[in-house]
Amino acid sequence: MLFRSEDEIDIWRQSEGRARGAVLALPQVWDLSRRWYGDRLAASFRGRTAAGAIQIFQALGLKDGFWTVPPS
Amino acid sequence: MTPRDRDWRIRRFIYTDWLRSGQAPRESAIAREFGLSRRDAGLALQRLHEAHALVLQKASGEILMAHPLSAIPTDYRVTVDGLCLFANCAWDSLGIPAMLGGDALIEARHPLNGDQMQYAIVGGELQGAGLVHFARPFRHWYDDIVDT
Q1: Nearest CB partner across the interface for B138, out of A2, A6, A66
Q2: Distance between CA B29 and CA A31 in Å, rounded?
Q3: Domain of B38, in residue numbers
Q4: Contact, A58 vs A35, CB < 8 A?
Q5: Residue A10, Cβ neighbours under 10 Å: how many?
Q6: Residue B38, CB-side half-sphere exposure with 13 Å CA sphere
Q7: ipTM (interface predicted TM)
Q8: Contact A30 B94 (CB under 8 A)
Q9: B96 to chain A: which residues are within 8 Å by CB?
Q10: Do B117 and A66 touch (CB under 8 A)?
Q11: HSE value, Cβ hemisphere, 13 Å, CA-based, for B77
Q12: What total number of domains does chain B contain?
C-alpha cells in the first residue's frame, strides 16, 4: 500500500491491527520493479527462481529477514 | 504439476491479449486460441497457477492475476498509451511500466482517506513520491497472494 508518510502507515496499522512490515520509498520500489518485472514478457521467462529473487533483493540491499526467499 | 512448453506459450498469449484489450482473456478464449477443450485449457491454467506464473479466481477458475496485472479493478490504475490497466498493489503499479519499458500514469487510492495520489514514469524516470508498506514477509506471499 502507498502512503505519504510513516505517520500514515502507523495510523493505518493501528486501525487495521497489523504489524509493521517492510517500508520502501517509491524510488526503491521503481528499482525493484525494473529488476523484477523487466523480463516478464520475454519468451524465455519461466518464472522467478529463488536464486534470482535473492540476487534481486541483495542488489537492492534488501537483506533482512522480511526478504528471505524460500527454496524454489 | 509442472507447466509444459505449451503452458508457457499460453502464458505469453495471456499477456499479449491482455495488453492489447485491457482485459484478462477468459478460459474459453484461451481454449479457442490453442484449439483445446475447456477442460484442457483449465488444466493448463491450473499448472501455471501452481507454478505461481499466474493466479486463478477460486470460484470460477478464470484468471485473477498475471503479475503485475489484475483482472479486477483495484486501487492502482495504470494508464499506458491510452490503455487502462489495473495493478495488484503499489509495487505492481510500477511493475507495469517496468514490464512494458514505457511511460505510464498511475492513479492510486489512498488507503486511509480515499484521496487520489498520482505518480508517473516518464522516459524511464519516476515522477512522484511516497512510501510503500509491504505487510507480509516475502516467504509468506503465496500463503495469501491477495494480501501482501
Answers
A1: A66
A2: 35
A3: 5-66
A4: no
A5: 13
A6: 6
A7: 0.95
A8: yes
A9: 37
A10: no
A11: 11
A12: 2
CATH number at residue B23: 1.10.10.10
C-alpha cell belonging to residue A31: 528499482
The domain boundary residue, chosen from B15, B38, B66 = B66
Q: Are B22 and B83 in contact (CB under 8 A)?
A: yes
Residue B69 touches partner A, C-beta closer than 8 Å: no
- Asked if residue A72 lies in contact with residue A49, where contact means CB atoms within 8 angstroms, the answer is yes
Claim to verify: residue B41 and residue B77 sit in the same structural domain:
no
- The SS3 call for residue B113 is coil
Nearest CA of chain B to the CA of A9: how many Å? 7
Q: What cell numbers appear for A40 in the block?
A: 516478464
- Closest partner residue to B138 (CB to CB) among A2, A30, A68 is A68
pLDDT by 10s per residue, chain B, length 148? 788 899 999 999 999 999 999 999 999 999 999 999 999 999 999 999 999 899 999 999 999 999 999 999 999 999 999 999 999 999 999 999 999 999 999 999 999 999 999 999 999 999 999 999 999 899 887 665 555 4
- Enumerate residues 6+ apart whose C-beta is below 8 A from A60: A28, A31, A32, A35
